[in-house]
Amino acid sequence: MTDRKFVDAIFSELFENNFVQYKNSLTKPVNGETDPYARARSSLALLSDDQKMDVVNFLRVVIADTASVLLGTLDGVHFPDNFEGEIQVTFNGEEIQGDLQDMFIERAQEDGVYN
To answer: Where are the domains of the chain?
Structure first.
């Protein structure tokens, strides 16, 4: 069950914390600032509210796909270019790898990330 807790913690951090911060920042009114969020807000301001939310919600797919690549690499089922070998992931001495990517994708599907 430690592997499930690990995946749930990662999922929560990414979607309940990070995505919410992105969404909040990107849906603020345009204010003339020049940081990356402000520039994205200025671009999104050209869209309708529905279109704006389509783009913001697409970030959920980007986040899920990125996490999937990382977890697949830790599981030993995805090998980034020129990087093959055995990775061992443990938590308090318990091996937690092997199904992390599958568990994460399952959770993302349950939460409608890909809809």
So the answer is: 2-110
